[in-house]
Amino acid sequence: MSDQQNNRDDSSKKSAGSPQRKFNFSLWYLVAVLLALFIAQAYMGGTSYQKLSYSRFKELLTEDQVKRVIITQEHIRGEAMMDSAGTKVLTSFEAVRVDDPDLVKQLEEKSINFEGKFESDWLKGFFFAWVLPLGIIILLWSFLIRRMGGGGTGGLMSFGKSRAKVYVESATKINFKDVAGIDEAVEELKEVVDYLKHPAKFRALGAQIPKGVILVGPPGTGKTLLAKAVAGEANVPFFSISGSDFVEMFVGVGAARVRDLFSQAQTKAPCIVFIDELDALGKARGASPWASHDEREQTLNALLVEMDGFESSKGVIIMAATNRPEILDMALMRPGRFDRQVVVDPPNIDGREAILRVHCRGKKVAKEVNLRVIAARTPGFAGADLANAINEAALLSARRGKKEIGMREMEEAVDREMTGMERRSRVMTPETKEKIAYHECGHALVGAKLPDTDPIHRVSIIPRGTATLGHTLYLPTEEQLLITKQQIIDKIKVALGGRAAEEIIYGEISSGAYSDLQSVTAMARAMVMDYGMSENLGQVVYRRRGHTPRDNPFQMADDYYGEKTAEAIDQEVRGIIDACYVEAKDILTQHVDVLKSMTAELLKVEILEGDALAEYLGKDRITDYSQHLADPEPIEGTEPGGDDTPADDENPDDLGHKIDREG
Predict the structure, then answer these.
(1) Pairing mode, if any, of strands 456-460 and 113-116?
(2) Which of 86, 233, 260, 445 is the most exposed place for a label (fewest CB within 10 A)?
(3) Same domain (yes/no): 454, 399
(4) Rounded to two decimals, what is the model's pTM?
(5) Does some domain include residue 11?
(6) SS3 string of 178-245?
(7) Residues carrying an active site annotation
(8) What mean pLDDT comes out for the span 421-426?
């Protein structure tokens, strides 16, 4: 029986086994102590002798002080009268024997009782030289072999045993209610759970459940959480293992573990087998012509054979998760193995709001908190990112001595996720700070004057992270699945607004627009090379997005075009950027007074948002922050909190217009 099967024994068996292990462990110590005492007694002979030199023994013999002598092959032992504290005391002695032919004659002359004794040295010679070292080696070897087997009782033979952990509903404590933002994936897996609970309903129609279900999506989107929710809902044995647990240094070990896992699963059917990080095990064979990995390929072959070797009617369903489906072997993805792919995408705004509500359960959240605003501020965030933001907000609230998680802490936590911590300790000269303020106000003003841009949420000149000296934050009103040519052009204009403002005010430019230039170059190049939005170069894709193992493995180039086309692409990209820069400068030139007054206010308060920002950009071009906070939807499952008493250095009237500057 494997280690995993032992884990499923009832508590009575475990409790019965523990005292036995402790008893055996103590018995070994007792045996070792008794053996040591036996050896010491046998070696010492049970008598304490005073060591004498042979010359001293001869002196005692001449002085008639020796009373009794025992002669062995190597020693002379006996009893003699020797001085002790000024008196003569009969003392046992021992001297090393030397070749003395006259010793026996001298003992006879003195009429001393003497005898010869044969002393066997097998204990010292054979036992200490052979038996004891061999016993120590055997004990060490058995100890190391037990540990090499994974710390369990399987020893060396457990190399080929599966390391899957077995869960049941009571162990996971997670169900579909704890999974939000991926409703389509949940619906797909509800069918699997329904089959495991009511297989007769499907068999009556001749339907066969898919053998394998693979969860595909970016990191942090909830693939492993979704698999645990399936375990909690199905109430069947759930084998969980990582793909890296199969691959070992020794060839054949991974394949043996695969076979052992499937044999266990079939004995526990109906059940679910979940393999996390499948790409560690299922990389395409022969994807690289210069390298191979015999152990991984043998393990993959074993997995393919085992998935073909069992019937789905037995109720064994294989689930797997990966964020790199493009590198998986084609044989693994064909129907009959992983028949169904469940895509777990990053959540949209509704999904992010639902995820935030799940992670707010059990936390003291203020009534003012509007999770819709936080969800709108976090496009591209996965479930793990949102969970971390909620936890960061809770830490900030605790550090500031508040009894509830407020809206300011939520926003600050999101800012930390996106741009890093505030760096108020960063020293900047007044001239540098003013340039940064003009730069950020240039972004905001250009964005406010263009129709196809998102509403502006905040303008800040507080340094964050390692390189961010200021930022202008936009709040999308809806998820954008498609983007038009004009929208890309407007984004380029907004990104160039910071450099344009510097040139208008100072007559020169700085290096502060480095990241802006990177983004506008990428957007313009994507227009020309990917989206076919160039009239001169036509509707042609000039860039390969990257090849997969299904493509030719020798195709290493990502782009394919000639030198003349490359030159034309560079000219077209530069033309788009230059034209957008000119238009951004024209917008700022027409509103230079607003730019200067907005910058002066930003230098005073460091952050502009809400009504303060609307004074310069207009109500229709900023996020209606007050409306979001006026009547937020209540958050279910949150704990009631106490009064959110501001600290002594905070202004209660400042809520919603400034970020708390502590930390």
Answers:
(1) unpaired
(2) 86
(3) no
(4) 0.62
(5) no
(6) HCCCCHHHHHHHHHHHHHHHCHHHHHCCCCCCCCEEEEECCCCCCHHHHHHHHHHHHCCCEEEEEHHH
(7) 440
(8) 70
